[in-house]
Fold Cupin.
Amino acid sequence: MDRRNEPFARDADLGWEPAGEGVTRKILTYRDEVMMVRVRFEAGAVGPAHSHPHIQCSLVESGVFEITISGRTERLRAGDSFTVPPGAVHGAKALEAGVLVDVFTPMRADFVS
C-alpha cells in the first residue's frame, strides 16, 4: 500500500521487511520530498558499501555501529548521528545489535516500488 503523503504512521501497523542478511527495515512515513525509515541490525550485520543520489541523515537509535562515509570510519553509539551527501559511498557494521533511523531526501522510491 502506498502511504505517500499520509501524515501519520502508527508503528504497530507497519511491518518489517528484509534488507540484507541480519538487517530489516520498516518504512515509517514519507512523501515525495522526504522519507523516514527504521533499520534494525543484528550484531555483526553489515550494510554493504553503496551510494545513492539522496541526502541521508541518520540517528543511531540503539546499539553501536562502525559507519564509513567516503573512506572515513567512525564508531557511533545511541544518540549519535551522521549525514551522507548525495553520491557518497557509505556503509555500516553493527558492533552490537541496534537500530538506525534514516531520513532521505528526496524519498527512496525504490523502497516502496
